[in-house]
């Protein structure tokens, strides 16, 4: 199986990069479908056209390993994920069922990235305001020192 997340552990995308990349994928249906085909092709080890629990287990273990996750998913965790992916209950996951999951996942990731971007922008504004206030206080302090010096000279 190809290493799916090998680049994830070595370089993390910024929230802005994540949002922009997912926006491209989600706004262009042919691009989204090509991505689904690629992910499904990587997961469908026996090329049967559907995914079974063994293929899902192998994929999840590989992704966890690539990302440096110490403990692989338990059989119960894999079973739970499989149940959520298998929308029609036929004990296999079709390409279309995987597409439904990926669309939901990417939408949620876009939302999370936009929340992170908003938090970062708010923090930047607060830091700029604090820097501006600090500069203002320094100017006021200099003015007060100058005025104090003037009053001392007049005495």
From TrEMBL:
<keyword id="KW-0106">Calcium</keyword>
<protein>
    <recommendedName>
        <fullName>EF-hand domain-containing protein</fullName>
    </recommendedName>
</protein>
<dbReference type="Pfam" id="PF13499">
    <property type="entry name" value="EF-hand_7"/>
</dbReference>
<dbReference type="InterPro" id="IPR018247">
    <property type="entry name" value="EF_Hand_1_Ca_BS"/>
</dbReference>
<feature type="domain" description="EF-hand">
    <location>
        <begin position="73"/>
        <end position="108"/>
    </location>
</feature>
<dbReference type="InterPro" id="IPR002048">
    <property type="entry name" value="EF_hand_dom"/>
</dbReference>
<feature type="domain" description="EF-hand">
    <location>
        <begin position="31"/>
        <end position="66"/>
    </location>
</feature>
<dbReference type="GO" id="GO:0005509">
    <property type="term" value="F:calcium ion binding"/>
</dbReference>
<dbReference type="InterPro" id="IPR011992">
    <property type="entry name" value="EF-hand-dom_pair"/>
</dbReference>
């Amino acid at each position: 199986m190809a290493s799916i997340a090998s680049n994830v552990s070595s370089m993390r995308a910024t929230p802005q990069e994540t949002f922009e990349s997912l926006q491209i994928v989600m706004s262009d249906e042919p691009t989204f479908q090509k991505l689904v085909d690629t992910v499904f092709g990587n997961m469908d080890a026996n090329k049967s056209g559907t995914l079974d629990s063994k293929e899902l287990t192998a994929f999840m273990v590989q992704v966890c390993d690539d990302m440096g996750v110490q403990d692989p998913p338990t059989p119960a965790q894999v079973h739970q994920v499989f149940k959520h992916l298998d929308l029609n209950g036929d004990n296999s996951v079709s390409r279309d069922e995987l597409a439904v999951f990926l669309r939901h996942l990417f939408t949620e990731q876009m939302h999370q990235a936009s929340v992170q971007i908003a938090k970062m922008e708010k923090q930047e504004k607060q830091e700029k305001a604090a820097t501006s206030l600090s500069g203002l206080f320094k100017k006021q302090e200099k003015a007060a020192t100058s005025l104090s010096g003037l009053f001392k000279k007049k005495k």
